[in-house]
Amino acid sequence: MDDNLIIRKAEVKDAEYIALLGQITFDETFGHHFRDRNDLINYFKSTFSVEKIRSSIAKENNVFWLALVNDLPIGYAKLKKFSPLEQLLPAPAAQLQKIYVLKDYIGKQVGPALQNALFDEVKALKISNLWLSVLKTNERAIRFYQKNNFKSVGEHLFTVGKETFDFYIFLKKFE
What we know:
CATH architecture: 3-Layer(aba) Sandwich
Oligomer: single chain
Helix content: 25-40%
């Protein structure tokens, strides 16, 4: 990747970047699954509004990272520090909620750089279980997580508008 890649923790002032990245990258990755574009737009309003992202960044339990190339935002990651998972009880767990990178930067080591920053935070917090959800048809993401020692531990459904999506639950253990 370009030597100008910077990964840094996001601040509330970065909410506009993350909201826009969230909408663009979600559309690039999942937009084709929506029969009704209004369902997607409504999801953006509820999940990726600037105010929602500001609120989320400000929460003590969340950590966001921003990836920049030549000072332009190209991706982000989100960790929920304490996020119980039924399959793990009573062990504490963190959740890798998002790693999204603009499609033109996929394959240029931005995702791994964001993930490594997130892994470092999980280790510093001394949390031994990190989980995430990945769409069953997102083979590129599944390969990425499996390559990084995530194992499938379950499944769940997620509905947006008229669409229901089938997800794997992946888990990575830190010793």
